[in-house]
Amino acid sequence: MKQLYIAGEWCDGVAARANVNPSDTTDVVGDYAQADRRLAEAAIGSARAAFSGWSRSTPQVRADALDRIGSELLARKDELGRLLSREEGKTLPEAIAEAARAGQIFKFFAGEALRCGGERLPSVRPGVDVEITREALGVIGIITPWNFPIAIPAWKIAPALAYGNCVVFKPADLVPGSAWALAEIISRAGLPAGVFNLVMGPGSQVGQTLLDDRRIDGITFTGSTSTGARVMSAAGQRFARMQLEMGGKNPLVVLNDADLAQASFCAIQGGYYSTGQRCTASSRFIVEKGIYPAFVESVHNGLAALRVDHALEPGTDIGPVVDESQLAQDLEYIDIGRAEGARLVCGGERLSRRTSGHYLAPALFADASPEMRIAREEIFGPVACVIPADNYEHALALANDTEFGLSAGICTTSLKHATHFKRNVEAGMVMVNVPTAGVDYHVPFGGRKASSFGPREQGRYAAEFFTVVKTAYTGA
Q1: What DSSP string runs through 260-318?
Q2: Ramachandran angles phi, psi of 390, nearest 5°
Q3: On the CB side of 95, how many CA atoms lie within 13 Å of its CA?
């Protein structure tokens, strides 16, 4: 059994949870320990005790530790990618790329540990100097989702450690394997006991403890909007700092002048790869009427050519849905789309393969209207709908007609429309002639409206959440 990591020691939990392969439900990846409230509180206590020393460590000490972690992640990316693919269902090439990205993130923040500068300014009063510095926030509770089980933990843990914070990390129950492997690498990086802690377990026990305990100074959470609202309510009552990354219903606008092959690629890559289980996935294709029939046919043909199969099989384009409950949700939305009057162009049926997995044929709905549930609610699966638009202005209005605002894309050869869209679409990230899903680790990540709350993640903007600003005045 894979254990918890608390106060620099591996320890048993109160129960165990089996980690099941969604490509083959007869394959158990392993058994992983589960913490309860008491063990979560012990992890928080160890992080609090370690904070004074770690936050005052030299930037070089922190940079060296993060660089060691990043180097091992990159050296073992194939092995870690295979584990990720096996437990989450992401295809092997995608999983290896994610493991490599985790390594690159740690390498990036190793450098950032050495670049956390400040300012020295003259006061408006004579004989007074002003210094502006950044200090570590404190103990950080990290709660991550199942869809990127090593990259999302990396882009939260790495900056937390780089800026001198201590960490209590709770991964998603569905994907403990990648989290444990990352924790095992971190455990050998030379961090003092208590600086990093892994507490696997249910949200009702471990997650709630992180939200309620006043020794936790900040919560960084990625997950559903509904859970994010509960995080905000609980942590907000004690004025903890919060960083919430939540859902999306991301539009891809396709104008009449778009390159059809490029637009189809953006739609399929952004909407269906990783089984559509990305918060940045395109799930609303908003298409001008002049190109509408050709676009629907092109995407249909592209989806028909995709291979849905075991995530580890060579040549697989799309793996399984992550588990049975998520598959049931996807199928329910397909029934809803039919009932609402959208036209199911292709897909939407459960598939049988050589192994017993949660396989779903990628579904494309056409002739959807913006009030339909399939056009408004996040499905989080390989399901997308096409909405007709009269012109660019109508397409922009449809793109903004959502409670979410994470990512938005446009396919066009018009510089005028691309420029206007970048300025006027209500999203935190905008893509022009590239898929909405796919972001760089050295620039800020985050959205608007119900998609995000708090400072941005990734890049140098991560300092806004993981540090606090101090202004000091010194008289002559």
Answers
A1: HHHHHHHHHHHHHGGGG--TT-EEEEEEETTTHHHHHHHHHHHHHTPPB--TTSTT-SB
A2: -75, -35
A3: 28
Catalytic option among 279, 385, 411, 457: 279
Nearest to 389 by CA among 267, 282, 253, 265: 253
Reply yes or no on whether 87 is catalytic. Answer: no
Strand order in the sheet with 128-136: 119-122, 128-136, 467-475
Rounded to two decimals, what is the model's pTM? 0.97
Q: Which of 94, 245, 288, 378 is catalytic?
A: 245
pLDDT digits (tens, 9 = 90+) for 249-292: 999 999 999 999 999 999 999 999 999 999 999 999 999 999 99
- Asked about 279 being catalytic, the answer comes back as yes
pLDDT band at 476 (very low <50, low <70, confident <90, very high): confident
Domains in the chain and their CATH numbers? 4-246+451-475 (3.40.605.10), 250-432 (3.40.309.10)
Q: How far apart are CA 355 and CA 23, in angstroms?
A: 7
- Examine the pLDDT at 56 and tell me if it is beyond 90: yes
Neighbours of 119 (CB within 10 A): 10
